[in-house]
Design a protein that fits this description.
Length: 132
Amino acid sequence: MSFGQASVGPLPPAARWLGVAVLAGGLALRAWGMRTLAQYYTRTLRTVTDQRVVQEGPYRLIRHPGYCGSLLVWIGYALGLGSWPATLIVTALLTAAYVWRITAEERLLIAAFGSAYTDYRARTKRLVPFVF
């Protein structure tokens, strides 16, 4: 018996293929976001010289496509494992972690860009287009 399959059963085989598609979509979204940010992309919470609020590409629909893409990668991976508990745990824990990181990042962006960022923030959802 493997983890997560004893009490609720495994995910159906189609869920594994859905996981592959979600993972690939997440990789593509993350890459698109990084490519759109170009020289403004950093791995740490900071702004760079002459940075502006980027509102093109995936940033038209969501403020954090890189985090959304990463979350999709991990959800896709968990689906690929075929385990309901793994999928639920990964989704819950990583969503909480990314929301925490986004909150810290947005404080920095508001301090750096002021109303340019708060206006963008008012028009654009965080992670899920038209929803959140």
